[in-house]
Specification:
Layout (H helix, E strand, L loop, with lengths): L10 H9 L13 E5 L9 E6 L12 E2 L11 E4 L4 E4 L4 E2 L4 E4 L9 E6 L16 E2 L4 E2 L6 E10 L3 E9 L4 E8 L16 E12 L2 E11 L11 E8 L8 E2 L4 E2 L9 E2 L4 E2 L8 E2 L4 E2 L8 E2 L8 E5 L7 E8 L21 E3 L7 E3 L5 E3 L4 E3 L4 E3 L4 E9 L9 E6 L5 E2 L5 E3 L4 E3 L8 E7 L19 E10 L5 E9 L2 E9 L2 E10 L6 E7 L14 E10 L5 E7 L18 E3 L6 E3 L4 E3 L10 E3 L5 E2 L6 E2 L3 E5 L5 E5 L7 E4 L3 E2 L5 E8 L9 E4 L8 E4 L1 E11 L2 E12 L1 E6 L3 E2 L2 E2 L14 E6 L12 E8 L8 E3 L13 E8 L11 E5 L6 E8 L15 E4 L3 H43 L21 H9 L3 H10 L14 H8 L1
Parallel strand pairs: 63-65
Antiparallel strand pairs: 1-2, 2-3, 4-5, 6-17, 7-16, 8-11, 9-10, 10-16, 11-15, 12-14, 12-16, 13-15, 18-19, 20-21, 22-23, 24-25, 25-26, 27-28, 29-30, 31-42, 31-43, 32-33, 32-36, 34-35, 35-42, 36-41, 37-40, 37-42, 38-39, 38-41, 44-45, 46-47, 48-49, 50-51, 52-54, 53-54, 54-57, 55-56, 57-58, 59-62, ...
Amino acid sequence: TMEPGSVRLSPLLLWLLYAHASADLPLCKESDYHFEYTECDALGSRWRVAVPNKADICTGLPDPVHGTQCTFSCNEGEFLDMQLQRCKKCAAGTYSLGTGIAFDEWDSLPSGFTNQGVNINDENVFANCSSSTWTPKGDYISSNTDECTATLFYAVNLKTPGIVSFEYFYPDNAIYFEFFVQNDQCQSTDSVSRWMKISDTKWSKYMAELKTGNNVLYWRTTGYMMAGSEVKPALLRNIGISGVSYTSECFQCKPGTYSEKPGSARCVPCPADTYSNRGATVCLQCDSDKYSEAGSGTCKPRPACTVGDYFYTHTPCDSKGKTQLMYKWVQPKICSETVKGAVQLPASGRKKTCPPCNPGFFLTNSSTCEPCQQGSYSNGTDCIRCPVGTEPVLAFEYKWWNTLPKNMMSYTLRQWLSHSEKTTGWEVAGEYIYTTPGDQDVDNQMLTLQVPGYRLPQSVSKASDNSELSRITFVFETTCSANCTFSFLAGYNQWLNEVVEWWRGSQAKQSYSYLIQRNVTTTFTWSFQRTGESSEGRKHSSDVAKIYSIHIANVIGGVASQCRHCALGPAEYSSACVPCPPGHYMVNGTGACESCPPNTIIRADQSIGLDACVPCGPNTERNEAFTACHSDCTLDVESAGGEQLHYDLSALSNVTAFQGSPRFTNKGLRYFHHFNISLCGGKGKLATCVDNVTESGGRVRGYVCQATAVPSGIRSQSLVSTQPVLISDSLIGVSTDTMLSGISSPDWLFPSANGLQDVIFYFRSSVSTLACKEGRSASVRLRCNPAVSAKDLITVPSNCSEGTCDGCAFHFLWESQHACPLCTKNNYREIVSACIQGIQRTTYVWQEPLWCHGGEPLPPSTVSACVPLDFWLRFGVSAGTIAAVLLISISCYFWKKTRKLQYKYSKLVMDSSGKECDLPTADSCAIMEGEDAEDDIMYLTKKPFFSKIRAYSRERTSDGFDSVPLKSSSSRQRMDL
């Protein structure tokens, strides 16, 4: 890639050039050749060489000479004279950027530009894209409108850091339009954003910095056409690049522009009713019977003025409260009042009393209308405070049109080009606002209304049949002689407008209502086009559209024409009837505030009374503001066997993203549904889905959201996210049950082989749609799987590849080891080893299969002292021996005792055998010498010590004397003998 004004010549080519001579060729004149510079060498110098315009036409070219230094450059309005090798000013009627180049004419593709159409979205899709390129259209160049990728690129070498600037018109988001810069190594340079912002009402200007060296500029578009849709191309014009060393020539001003002084850096457009030719130094005035628009190269004949060339409007109220009807010419004025048959501008009407203010406004002392303060309402005259226990019904209501409201704007949109804010598209007329005669019948006359947002009154419950968030109603009328079109558009963000409804031809006075169910609409637009046919002039200027009234309900920052009883609840922004503190409700409108029960929140659309308090679902708790229930990612559940299980899901609390299986457009191009899930939510942890096609793309936040991801085929960005959708914005509860609050999560969607119950998070969205009147819902099953080490293994049902079968209820399965209950003592067992050398070891191991994670860790192994088995054997033998000896001794003792008793018994029987039935009588009070005293004494001495004591105690009488045994009479008789 070479800079403008430089050339690459090889030594061989130089030699051939200088060595060429022929006696048959004439000497070269200055018109037969031109000068160019060789490339700069390592020392920063170069040569100027003469290059013939045509080969073999002359001889005797000038010898090469040293050129200027490579750091040399020219200023704006100058060019480099190669003959003198110095900068000179451009002549009048021409211009130059000095160290820049410009491209403002697009009759054909300028030199240096390359155009290419390819298919980079999907290699498996066959499409012939060779003809899908950028197309020059005179003043601009237009992109393709199909599903091919059209690339326009230009390579330039800069000696100093420069700037590239261009203007673009980008009306359709169905085309992805990007601009980026790469160096000669195909490395993208840093830029704020490569995606162009939508520009559907005017030309936008873009500027980017360029680095020294080679720069390749890319303008690339790719269309995604849906069934039955028509795509509008992106337009490009006025490309300028600064930072080159010089330009060797000046460019002539194009028709409709001029430069009156030498050294001009740019040409100035001619004003209206003037014209100029190419290279003009001044603009020429059109004849009195002709006219021209600003920047025109020709003049057109003036037509005769008609009633379609002027319009009427009401002047603002003066200090006396008076207004009058005033007539004005349509600007720019192109008609002639002197032509035969021309009409004259009517005189202004008489002053009349101003109409009243619109509802919600009051009339000031200066006869202007101002909005009532918050908490007040008005019928258009005076503001009245709303009674206690009521709230103002906020809305925008316009039925008197003396001045254009501050939040409305009127302009004319030129077809495919730009709009003029100075050109009035709609004018006020007291009882209505209407379209003025336009400059061209194909122009679109636009009226826009800005809306900051919507909020339901507290007295309206979403549980009722009336589930609409807001409604816009307007009364209109059209009168057309041609095939006119009246359109109503709704803008869902700052750069996207979609046609809601349109009417063709004349329409009688009628009312139209549009239901608003999402708090995303920011603008409403009414457009009137007299004809869509490409014809110049004002053939249908009398065609008109009128809007009599506009009413939008439940508008944030609106005004009120009435008040209604409200359900007092938690304090909310801009609410005028909520005296109770957070967590309190009003008791049946009495003004007394009562606290809600524990773990309940205040319903956003509550009724008066205890019904305002909504209990939080299982395993959730209310936030500090009493507005929502949330989870701290810890919960306790009871298993099927009655065991209490504890869960800590903190490791899964961060926002997790995954995408479903690929889908395809009707052209076969691939895209995905990309999901973001915030399991527990919390501060700063809500899931966010954005539209990153442009910097001002849409954004939704909640627990579960979805976006459409399209492969972009760009090195620096693998996916393009668009069309964000909020699936769930509130947590209903956490349970092991398969149904909670009307949200179902059947087991058959995700069959399980283990016996552990899944923990299910239930979510719901408060936003209802036409397809999902109850709002969307989502259930996230957490399944314990110790084999899964990843935290984000999320799947969808096999029979519902996009996570939902009906588009309203979404189901997800999240498998992870972090979804297992916390481990407890019941999940491990102890193993006691044998006693070896007086030491015994106790070890703890997990039970298999292990269905827990984290929690209580395994106790460490323990070591304790113990007694070995041989010791107990020796102890048992010794104890047995002792017991046997003791048993033998006791047996012997009792045997001898028994023999003694038998002896005494026998002796007693023998002594009593003399006389039957008579006991022996005592015949002596003492033991006689020689009798049995020895035996008695012997037996007494053989008794144990304790036995002797017991015997002694028994032998004493009650009176304290010893009892002495006496011998019987028979014994005495034996003694006598």
